[in-house]
Amino acid sequence: MEMPPRSRAIATQGASMKIAFYAPMKPPTALSPSGDRTIGRLLIEALETARFDVEVASSLRTWSGTPDPARLAAFRNAAATEQERLLAAWRGLSADRQPDLWFTYHNYYKAPDFLGPAVADALGIPYVVVEASYAAHRAKGPWADWLEEARRGIAAADLIFSFTQRDEIGLKPISRAERRRRLAPFLGELPPARPSGSSERSGAVRLICVAMMREGAKAESYRLLAAALGNLMHQDWTLDVVGDGVMRSELQQLFSAAGGDRVCFRGRLEGAALTEALNDADIFVWPGIDETFGMAFLEAQAFGLPVAACDTAGVDEVVRHGQTGLLARETTPDALAATIAILIRSPDLRWKLGNQARDHIAAHHSIGSAAAMLGRELTALTARR
Q: Which residues contact 40 (CB under 8 A, 6 or more apart)?
């Protein structure tokens, strides 16, 4: 007998809860690195740490950089086909092999979740979203239909986990308070502590930034950083730029004009190469324009680097001004330059803030704490169902 919608309990008592994981913006299996891929993979790791059985349900990507009506229609059609495929596959399995919960990462107007709400409803299982956001100002204009698709999914969610206060505030008009939770953004295993004596190194102060080189907010941050460093030519510094993308050629020219041979473009680094670059640095510099919170800020602080950034968007969710870094109150070249200059001139302050940054990440942004919260909340949700 088919179970009623949204009420099927875990089929086998004592068995691991089975979770269907989905990321409409970028699947965790994607080949190109990005913050979204990293967060998707970390969420899966946290869920598995909480002893859930996780399966990536679909690799259907519904992200669009433009509000093209034809693309929206194509996504709807592709999602309908994918829904049929998933339901046919799962309904052919015994109840103890079907998913107990659908878990979507990042549902918003540029990447609506066309799959989760419909599939969860058809299977009678809870629907959960992490990092949903609702941009009410898009309700009128070319993105209106895309926003409505995202809104329907968010409104249908049994639980919504937000990484930032900014997102949680935006969700208030379309979701009930008892369904909203805050989940601190988190990292996996922390790197080893920075080598002793790093604060006593002589020579130029080594700055580093790590970010993709693409149009939009990332390019705006790069331009702001270049302008700020152009105001600091009287200071002794070098900059390693880690990242790659379609804007690389333009940005290299920009930084060449601003900093000359002080700036080294390292390209995309991962693994041991990125670890070495971060360990060799003294300050992590990045404006953070329109960052939800920024995984790079978390990673830099985990390496014991103090941060120089702007107090914009969700940066202050993960960088504590005066405790783990310094935040410029204005998003201007002069303000950012003044903030960076303080850290360049103060090795003791750099060392203090860097140590506090690492301790802060360990205490508040660990995968263990995320796994504990997800395990507690998702288990309670299925029990209520």
A: 21, 23, 26, 27, 28, 105, 106
Please state, in angstroms and rounded to a whole number, the distance separating the CA atoms of residues 73 and 123.
Answer: 25
- Reduced to 3 states (helix: H, G, I; strand: E, B; else coil), residue 254 is helix
Tokens of 129: 């979203």
Superfamily for the 18-188+366-384 domain: Glycogen Phosphorylase B; (3.40.50.2000)
CA angle 209, 210, 216 (to 5 degrees): 100
Domain with CATH 3.40.50.2000 in the chain: 18-188+366-384, 198-364
Q: What tokens does 103 get?
A: 């878990």
Distance CA(341)–CA(352), nearest Å, equals 16
Q: Each residue of 340-366: pLDDT tens digit?
A: 999 999 999 999 999 999 999 999 999
pLDDT of residue 200: 56
Instruction: Measure Cα distances from 127 to 2, 3, 51, 77, 302 in Å.
Output: 18, 16, 19, 21, 32
Residue pair 331/312 in contact by the 8 Å Cβ criterion: yes
For residues 142 and 168, is the Cβ–Cβ distance under 8 A? no
332 closest CA partner among 213, 224, 207, 199? 224
Interatomic CA distance for residues 25 and 75, integer angstroms = 12
Architecture of domain 198-364: 3-Layer(aba) Sandwich (3.40)
Residues of the chain with pLDDT under 70: 1-15, 195-202, 385
Cβ–Cβ < 8 Å for 100, 91? no
Full-model pTM: 0.81
Residue 92 in tokens: 């052919």
